[in-house]
Amino acid sequence: MNRLARITFAASTSLLAASAAVSVSAQRDFDSVEITAEEVAPGIAVLFGAGGNIGVSHGEDGTLIIDDQFAPLSSKIEAAIERLGASPVTYVVNTHWHFDHTGGNEHFGGTGATIFAHDNVRVRMAAGGTAAGNATPPAPPAALPIVTFAQGLRFHLNGDTINLMYFGGGHTDGDSVVVWEEDNVIHMGDLYFKIPGYPFMDTDSGGNVYNAMRSLDIVIAMIDDETKVIPGHGPMSNKSELVAYRALIGEAVARVDALREQGMTLEQAVAAQPFASIDRGEGGFISADAFVTAIWNSQSE
Q1: Which of 20, 74, 75, 205 fits as disulfide partner to 104, beta carbons 3.0 to 4.6 Å?
Q2: Are strands 185-187 and 228-230 parallel, antiparallel or unpaired?
Q3: Beta bridge partners of 48
Q4: What's the pLDDT tens digit per position in 210-254?
Q5: Cα(91)–Cα(198) distance, integer angstroms
Q6: Alpha-carbon distance 171 to 168, whole Å?
């Protein structure tokens, strides 16, 4: 049993202000989206398209996908899975409830796939509400996870032990990570963005930056330098890049904490531009001001 397998077993038995977000599904031209695949290990792949990265486990026991992007892309996702030589989707895992990760649920649920997620994912999908700054209606019954868990769940599939693990969330209150023990692969969902811009903590969905830091700390302690890390968005990654991402969040939180300790209001903290010296490139889901606000709101909870 490798180091990741030993620690994931132990962990599994214990244990923004989004105003910059737009109604992506309403505005994107999905006809132009191409779903591409990258093999991560034998029988394990990641699909890139629009929305969250899709993890795939495929083999003689069936096909499991992690997240399913937007509803209009379902047929393209199926075609990409077929090109892998995989059978139709048997199981769907949602890392959290956001529409760019669960949009295909109704389609795949309707074709007979069983959907799995943390308890809070089903609660939020069933109720609807504000997700990533967008008004989201209640999900239809076929889109809802029908198997939910509080801390974790384990698949024995395609020669792998695949753990779904909840460490307290952070991006939302329902974030799971998915670990392939034998192949030393982890899917982070949106606890990890490998894209320009600032980390997105959806406080409207129970996200909290302090919970995110704790979740990331647990993951970093679990994995090693050989672990293949699938981020929620962006290209494949590794432990050192995840450590740097966690350090960025810690530095940002320290700066906002310092402003609060000085007696500033949120408006004054935003105006102080505490991240002016942190270059995150162009683009991303949220602005520096929105990240300040998310950290401040996390402090208030």
Answers
A1: 74
A2: parallel
A3: 36
A4: 999 999 999 999 999 999 999 999 999 999 999 999 999 999 999
A5: 32
A6: 10
Beta-bridged to residue 62, according to DSSP, are 59
For residue 45 the two structure tokens come to 């792949």
- 């997105």: which residue's tokens? 200
Residue 245 has φ and ψ, to the nearest 5°, of -65, -45
For the stretch 108-143, pLDDT in tens is: 999 999 999 999 999 999 999 988 888 999 999 999
Phi, psi of 145 (to 5 degrees): -60, 135
Q: Are 261 and 269 in contact (CB under 8 A)?
A: no
Separation between Cα atoms, residue 91 and residue 73, nearest integer Å = 17
Distances (CA, A) of 13 to 115, 152, 156, 164, 166: 22, 8, 16, 12, 11
Three-state SS sequence of the chain: CCHHHHHHHHHHHCCCCCCCCCCHHHHCCHHHCCCEEEEEECCEEEEECCCCCEEEEEECCEEEEECCCCHHHHHHHHHHHHHCCCCCEEEEECCCCCHHHHCCHHHHHHCCCEEEEEHHHHHHHHHCEEECCEEECCCCHHHCCCEEECCEEEEEECCEEEEEECCCCCCCCCCCEEEECCCCEEECHHHCECCCCCCCCCHHHCCCHHHHHHHHHHHHHHCCCCCEEECCECCCECHHHHHHHHHHHHHHHHHHHHHHHCCCCHHHHHHCCCCCCCCCCCCCCCCHHHHHHHHHHHHCC
Q: How far apart are CA 143 and CA 115, in angstroms?
A: 8
Sign of CA dihedral 233, 239, 241, 245: positive
Q: What is the pTM of this model?
A: 0.91
